[in-house]
Amino acid sequence: MTTPIRSGNRAADQLRPVRITRHYTQHAEGAVLIEFGATRVLCTASVQENVPPHQRGTGRGWVTAEYGMLPRATHQRSDREAAKGKQSGRTQEIQRLIGRSLRAVFDLSLLGERTLVLDCDVIQADGGTRTAAITGAWVAASDAVATLLASGALAASPIRGPVAAISVGLVQGQPVLDLDYAEDAGCDTDMNVVMTGAGHFVEVQGTAEGAAFTRAQMDQLLALADKGIAELVQLQQQSLSNE
Amino acid sequence: MTTPIRSGNRAADQLRPVRITRHYTQHAEGAVLIEFGATRVLCTASVQENVPPHQRGTGRGWVTAEYGMLPRATHQRSDREAAKGKQSGRTQEIQRLIGRSLRAVFDLSLLGERTLVLDCDVIQADGGTRTAAITGAWVAASDAVATLLASGALAASPIRGPVAAISVGLVQGQPVLDLDYAEDAGCDTDMNVVMTGAGHFVEVQGTAEGAAFTRAQMDQLLALADKGIAELVQLQQQSLSNE
Amino acid sequence: MTTPIRSGNRAADQLRPVRITRHYTQHAEGAVLIEFGATRVLCTASVQENVPPHQRGTGRGWVTAEYGMLPRATHQRSDREAAKGKQSGRTQEIQRLIGRSLRAVFDLSLLGERTLVLDCDVIQADGGTRTAAITGAWVAASDAVATLLASGALAASPIRGPVAAISVGLVQGQPVLDLDYAEDAGCDTDMNVVMTGAGHFVEVQGTAEGAAFTRAQMDQLLALADKGIAELVQLQQQSLSNE
Amino acid sequence: MTTPIRSGNRAADQLRPVRITRHYTQHAEGAVLIEFGATRVLCTASVQENVPPHQRGTGRGWVTAEYGMLPRATHQRSDREAAKGKQSGRTQEIQRLIGRSLRAVFDLSLLGERTLVLDCDVIQADGGTRTAAITGAWVAASDAVATLLASGALAASPIRGPVAAISVGLVQGQPVLDLDYAEDAGCDTDMNVVMTGAGHFVEVQGTAEGAAFTRAQMDQLLALADKGIAELVQLQQQSLSNE
Amino acid sequence: MTTPIRSGNRAADQLRPVRITRHYTQHAEGAVLIEFGATRVLCTASVQENVPPHQRGTGRGWVTAEYGMLPRATHQRSDREAAKGKQSGRTQEIQRLIGRSLRAVFDLSLLGERTLVLDCDVIQADGGTRTAAITGAWVAASDAVATLLASGALAASPIRGPVAAISVGLVQGQPVLDLDYAEDAGCDTDMNVVMTGAGHFVEVQGTAEGAAFTRAQMDQLLALADKGIAELVQLQQQSLSNE
Amino acid sequence: MTTPIRSGNRAADQLRPVRITRHYTQHAEGAVLIEFGATRVLCTASVQENVPPHQRGTGRGWVTAEYGMLPRATHQRSDREAAKGKQSGRTQEIQRLIGRSLRAVFDLSLLGERTLVLDCDVIQADGGTRTAAITGAWVAASDAVATLLASGALAASPIRGPVAAISVGLVQGQPVLDLDYAEDAGCDTDMNVVMTGAGHFVEVQGTAEGAAFTRAQMDQLLALADKGIAELVQLQQQSLSNE
User: Best mutation site among F202, F213, F220, F226 for testing chain E: the one with the most E CBs within 10 Å?
Assistant: First the structure.
């Protein structure tokens, strides 16, 4: 089994070029364009001074996410969900995953009774949109929290630490990091991993598209993810240290 | 850290009593009531002589699943999705998981241009409804395939082998197998694992509800799942060997 | 005109075997599986401590019903209403009928400002699902009321007496009681009759599927219904007298 | 028990003034405004040269109905169903009833593979809108059939005879014919009866709003309905004999 | 370029016969049937003692409109929007236009915290339904306001003056007033103009269906509209002066 | 009356800085980011090898548009239409306007039986999103047509010439060109004008938000629009001349 040649001569354990652009739009409390290669996702964080019914009167806040894809973010135009009148199961799965991932690093009681809404809209898709969204949404959330701290609305940050996400998979039997669209479409196994800055797991979602995968392969995939997440967390921190 | 006392004095690595009742209803080609303790799911397999558009003209079939919960399957009545006019994100996630899991053991080209629809309806819920659904749906699918083989509609079985699913999790820091509702509601980490009869992974979906979990904990959870799945596959085979 | 031979050699004025199983599931305040021959309907009664807007502040309660059919309760799989995003006209007609029938024997002012929701879900269909649902829902409602009386939430029962329902029809010109699916599909006239324990009418819904029916035929049908209802009311009482 | 004084000094067995205006609008093949007192329903019949899927290739046609109420047809404005995005259960029940009633007097094989759509829209409501709709729709259907006969599209009329509908009820214990809104709102029992010109039953839908009703009361109500229908059928015929 | 011959020998700058019938139905506070030739629109005005959220607590009222078309108001039957479950973009555009047009002549602070709902339902369509609707809705609104003044609910009229609407267009290059359906379907440019009694513009909506139109053509169209509106306002006033 | 001071010291007849970026994303046949000051709209043009039913078999193509706004394009987050399950009336109005405007300069018979879909998604909103969308969509459409010409799919361009759009309005009584959000929110009259390269009108949509406007004011507004459109058409041409 030989290493498949990856686009741009990437090594099997190498991320695509990642770019994080803060303040990409001007109205939101946090507005981050994140790029994983050709994948581009706009992540905005909006502060709303209310909470959903299940949190009312608890003194605790809420963090939630919505996900969308512009119709021509993809190779073939996909139907606009607003025109179809419903979000697909895939869309709902992804936005639930983003919301859970961010909540995993939030102390909701420190947020107070307000909601942070993370809108992740895919401008251009080339694989890995959900992992880019989680990684970018955390930066946007950090900016929004900084605004609340600066205005005195919050006394202490409710963010306990970083969270980031990456995909790993088996392409022609070979474990690779950060699959692009072509790799994802042809792979045997696709796994999305969400981890904290401390290297602990928040979410692991692995799916055998072709043959089922073995325990040894899973171990290889988790090791790759661990490496990728560590790099992403560093990039998040660098981005936030620039003003 | 001490072992939490489980309901019915179950050991941490012990399944709840599993019961598989075939031919539970009379119209479907496969109709299985599966029980994991107090969780009861009716899984029917229906053969339809057509396929969705993406398979038309390919000579290949399709396997899909739908999931529902009776309004009072739960402690508190939940709203009827048909009356609300939409399926929840959770429902869609689960039915997509069931469909993928079953397709993982199907050779769709041997099925011919027909669809196998697996309806998994929860009559009573006590945790683990999606894992019971997958495990029972495979038995229902096997009965439906047997009908097609018996009638001569199929010459060879499109089923490559068994597939089953179980949940594992960390309850008060302790890894346990097959969580009931009370354990699930209070756990730190919840993981659903789908595996083949050969002990390979089809799906792994782990979520940290509280603290993120470590690699060591993940290894413990996967080992527990492996044990549980092996037992479930044996129960599936026993069930099918009775007529 | 000769008597059509009915399945199982039933006489024209004979009910199918009726079975009423209480406490069929564990969460609901009332949970009854009722069987009219091969027709099986799960009727649960849920107590909710609120009322719809039109009853708020009146001190009076409400009784309502929802009806559903599992996709493969029928010979051919029918589409899942939750997936289609709307309940059919037939479903709405039936659930409105069940609700009105139960309210006819309830003193809503004795119920207090709470709602009794009756969920009637068809597990297996062979004709007469709505009449089985009404008959079983009354038993489930009785169990739920008993719970409220036992807990002291209610001082007196709001149920004024029994209500039950049966179908009658003209099959090949012959009046018959309690039509199964085959009889229903081929009959000229189908009538559903809901009556109280005192033998008075709550609902009469007769439809000529083929030729219009005469006044004399209607009289025959009403007499058959009267006989069937009397037997059903007796079976309801027997069921409730067992503990 | 004394006779309740009816609006306009109507006798208990007296219809409200009925007016049938044909050719009320110009585009439809049949367009009838029917008035039962202050109730005014516009019934149009439209011929469509296709049939629903269940009739395709059978050589048989179809007759169907839709029902609507203008928002301010009623005392209080009711929400527009098009704006709410769904038809109420009541609307669906009524339009299904109208469709069945008309089909009862149609020989669909003589209609050919075309559909007759009956739109019944309530301009002003004062009780009895569904019975007015059925009675008027039959006249509109007759005009549409006459158009098809005149054009040679049909060789023989598919209408086997007249059909009409009327409500009867128990108001303060007294049987009355053709209830207006005030009577309907306060009555104990409300029954809608659909009959052919030959005096046979097509539909009987009786509901006890308050106390259940006895067999003797039902006999009185059916006799009243029989008288009312006979008068309506005569009015239909008179209307069609004018050109 | 010669004057196209218009139906009924109308001159290019001539309105169709306009008829305004007040009190057309009995329940609404204002109920006007307006006819522009064969176009017939029923406009009702309903007073509701509440306002939408954006006006609550402001002391100001609201005026809104809804528009609908009976399925067979048109040459070919159009689908019922209530049955389709959504209002078309065209319907929404028109009802938003009617609402804005009426609000333009209302002093909402004099209306108090109540809503005037204008329902405009097309009974028969022959072009110009939206302009007829606006013109008729103003008369219905005037009747509703008169009711509120008579009852003492209002001390002063919130209506600042009349508003009316008319269509103009280029048919075969010729500017014409008040297009009927045949003219509208074949015209190059269609413009709807809403003006106050003082001859000022409230809305101008012009669309080139074929070739784009010049500034000189626009001037001609606006002059025609001015003439037509002046006549409509006079007809509105005449109608209101009759009791 | 003095000239209101505009943001950035803009003169009353001055456009905001306009930027047109072609090839903004990589998958679409045309992909243009257009900026009118802080307003940023991504316009993609997608070629689809089919047409809607009303064009099938005619040999003619179709041009259509969809419009959306990212939830946080605005000062306050607006609800995601895909999550609400329907597009607002405003959205539908705008996308219908964009579609009509583009079709006005297309010879659909030269396009062949294919559809050009223009997706206009607002990344950041500061007034004038619909006029920016039309102006940018025309550039995207030109790029898509160039692709079809280059591949030989088209022999001649179906585009007859440029189309662009601009808003004009009365702010504190003063006519101004290209209103930003603050001006738009406070203006008396808002008018959107769509014109061809030849200076002819395609659409004029003027609305009095406050006082109705006079004919003299309308003339001033149209003159301003004429100036703005001429500048926009020049910018479109410049953009297309760069490669």
Answer: F202
